[in-house]
Amino acid sequence: MTSSNWGRWGEDDERGAANFATPEVLLAALSAVRSGVVVSLADEIRRDRVPVAPARTPATHLMSLDGGDFASGYNIHGSSHGVADDYLFMACQGTTHVDALGHLWYDGALYNGFPADKVRSYGATRLGIENLGHLVTRGVFLDVARYLGVPHLADTHAISADELRACARAAGVSIRAGDVVVVRTGWRAVFDTDPARYFATSPGIGLDAARWLAEQQIAAIASDNVAVEVQTAHDRFEGGSVAPECHKLLIRDCGTYLMELLNLEELAEHDAGEFLFVAAPLKIRGAVGSPLNPLAVL
Amino acid sequence: MTSSNWGRWGEDDERGAANFATPEVLLAALSAVRSGVVVSLADEIRRDRVPVAPARTPATHLMSLDGGDFASGYNIHGSSHGVADDYLFMACQGTTHVDALGHLWYDGALYNGFPADKVRSYGATRLGIENLGHLVTRGVFLDVARYLGVPHLADTHAISADELRACARAAGVSIRAGDVVVVRTGWRAVFDTDPARYFATSPGIGLDAARWLAEQQIAAIASDNVAVEVQTAHDRFEGGSVAPECHKLLIRDCGTYLMELLNLEELAEHDAGEFLFVAAPLKIRGAVGSPLNPLAVL
Amino acid sequence: MTSSNWGRWGEDDERGAANFATPEVLLAALSAVRSGVVVSLADEIRRDRVPVAPARTPATHLMSLDGGDFASGYNIHGSSHGVADDYLFMACQGTTHVDALGHLWYDGALYNGFPADKVRSYGATRLGIENLGHLVTRGVFLDVARYLGVPHLADTHAISADELRACARAAGVSIRAGDVVVVRTGWRAVFDTDPARYFATSPGIGLDAARWLAEQQIAAIASDNVAVEVQTAHDRFEGGSVAPECHKLLIRDCGTYLMELLNLEELAEHDAGEFLFVAAPLKIRGAVGSPLNPLAVL
Amino acid sequence: MTSSNWGRWGEDDERGAANFATPEVLLAALSAVRSGVVVSLADEIRRDRVPVAPARTPATHLMSLDGGDFASGYNIHGSSHGVADDYLFMACQGTTHVDALGHLWYDGALYNGFPADKVRSYGATRLGIENLGHLVTRGVFLDVARYLGVPHLADTHAISADELRACARAAGVSIRAGDVVVVRTGWRAVFDTDPARYFATSPGIGLDAARWLAEQQIAAIASDNVAVEVQTAHDRFEGGSVAPECHKLLIRDCGTYLMELLNLEELAEHDAGEFLFVAAPLKIRGAVGSPLNPLAVL
Q1: CB D15, CB D132: distance < 8 Å
Q2: Which among C119, C285, C292 has the least Cβ separation from residue D61?
Q3: ipTM beyond cut 0.95
């Protein structure tokens, strides 16, 4: 039987599995904070040297006023002070990001049964990222690469539910409702040495792992690859012929959030099986994703 | 004597007063969380109906693929699933945001003495927002409008240090090192009824209040107006003839972060003098500001 | 009987009335060139001081490298030379522009019967601006404001076919197949003094004028207002309740090109009833409009 | 002796060698038009499949409203008509374009002696592309690849003045003041088969050819490569260690315009040594380049 959370929080619900992360869950998660150290799980937003899916335009940051202008003689009514300002153009899914529930659907229906055609050129009128708002809950770190004793998983390694469970046991944590499960494949390092290989395929969770995680009633899964789930062939997800089964189950059936393209290398240096996880996506009206700087408070 | 934090954390420091928010401060701040309720302090990012300084281009969100395309016959290799993607163009200071320390300077020098001309067209090579990374600490809410019994402060009201102290006493909180002080003027409501008035002037903290806050060694000040500090004349700050004295003292001398254009209306409905404050700015390489979704964990 | 050019150039035609501007028409148009003076009919592309429909984001031009950076110490491997580069974000219809035939439709059908749903988020797969390519032909200048002896036409003046004919007679020109008819209302000047009024309504051609022009088999109409045709109520065209009858007739039925937001003030200073008209739209794949610098070679 | 046009048209001149293209030159150029056929010399503007220098972000075209939205149920106050609108983000030099005279300088001085630091983050306050406005003059086609009997010139072939003269003789044309000289290397075809090779080096004019062309008082040179002049090493021009000597001579000393990344394949199919050349750059205030759809009227 396939999991589904349709109707669980009412027929108008647009927040999905983030509802599992209740205030009580948050209060309990505070005890996971031990050192007070904060680790960012995001890559920098920049034009190059960070993974951007080839089908998306790289982020472009531009200054509209800067120190060079003042060095050239510009001033503000003769004052001795100066200011700098800037602009950003980027794909909402172009770097470390969270998918909104409006990002993916099948059979014409989004999560909770909303029609897919409510996602329009002027934005998702249902299930836009503004419905998530924030996610502050316990994070559980499943460093599968370390657990398996490899720098990174193999190119098309589909992480199984058994592997996740064994990895959690080894880390001394158990998955609970409302958790964000952070899965490290180690794949991020491949980008630095071989960008083409990084996007050709990708290790990630397999379908039975996705099912098991959904059954645990987690709020979100975050990973250091392009699509959380395993990619067995080039552009499988974007334009490819194989349907993204984990996306279909998690986003559309269960309302579970997927966070992609994280950089988990710094987190991996800490011995932290659990922590307070914070996601504060930009409240972009009608967006189907938001760039994100996910934080782990250790 | 003017406060200054130059050299306090070494001559290479680019993080400024965020250094006051130590792991110990964070651990202590956890006790401020009581209900586990999370409140966003951000306005939505959208083209209209939110304050954007007239000198900046409004945020523009655009879909590159959406449900309408699938309704029109597009499909992914015959699969029944569909996906939507999107792009964002915006001013980094165009909505709720945090200024990087590279945003403002005087006499040619940025915070900690870095030359202003290090802020270039290809980004701030010193004091870009990536140096902040994150700010998780105690937030203290000073609802000055409520304290004074008005819907919002008057158009050019300069909040004094005495007012801040009295407001804090009334709220039963005291300012500590590493805090983020959230100051509510009520001015946000003016935008909804009279946008021109909203940007013509603005109530905000005055210089003695800024000095006092800096002396308390706070990490940041956040407010529901365009520039945190009082604006007594149209475009005083951007292109005007009066120097922004609080910006000069706070950003450049003290490395204190300013967060602007917050929406504090939901927070004001709660009776919360203190809370866990989380800022997770986008890690935009070399940016002098970042759009922000600041969170108050009550 | 309503004019229509569907099928006139084959069922696959995507170039519409531009086909009237044959090589023979072009050769004949050369004789309209007398002085060799070239006049641009475009407004500048800039963030302010030029008309941009309120529903569209103003053009934003940003430098990625400039002289200020070099003044600040940047150099290219020690060389004495420097370069500047820049980026542009703009609405394709945000300034002087030409509408592609994919810009407007009714009853689900575009020009020549193509389905409207071929215009998708990834661009117009039919009737995109790349199908126009260019338009070099005779231009005829109908300065209606001058003909009527007013600085500009009244706010909701619908120019009639009779007025166009009389204006042409007075200018000593007659409309021929393949022409671009340039209609001056004088309305551009209103923007400089009262931008709100400029967009509230607009004088422009009425439906009988549109019919007559279509019958003359012209290639395009260009005017110094937001929509070529008269606008009798605020946002009539964009989101309003009154259908744009001239657009429907001209673009969709006849494949006639509309060029909008021109600046005809310099042209009006010359005594030129006819000239060589050149439109070289950007070849933006799938765009439904292009910013344009239309030229009149006098 | 190095050519220079500084002061030739006054100390305030910002239009440079375009001044050679006088009305008289234009009138004479009309006789080059024989068939009335118009050929575009531009590549399409699109995200892929066209050459964009790796250091620049590819053009991104996005719809803000399209047929898919209407297919999904959107309508305009119940009307049967629909409209589509769109946006464009692009590098001004990201596709077929013309460099403004503010694009390049050396020894701190731009063309005509303007200080390089007048090119600022808010645009080139001197020598922006709006000063060119337009260029309508005679075009001369020097198909060097065909003349040498090769599909394209070799990877680092520096075209000499002798080769240009011989090629012109073979084509039966002579270069005159005010001309735009269109030089075909055939290199464009390399992009389709090997994009990396296309940008690694490039054939193009050498310095003696540049000198000779400048002495002929031409207005502009246009070519089907990334920088008009030969590129002998990867990123020589952008960030490389070898100064672009032809750019320095032509743009900065002589005010001669360079048009780059043209697609001359369709033109090459015609037997046209001369034609009427039209460049109508966007009038982007303060831009140092403009995307362009250059036209050859044969």
Answers
A1: yes
A2: C285
A3: yes
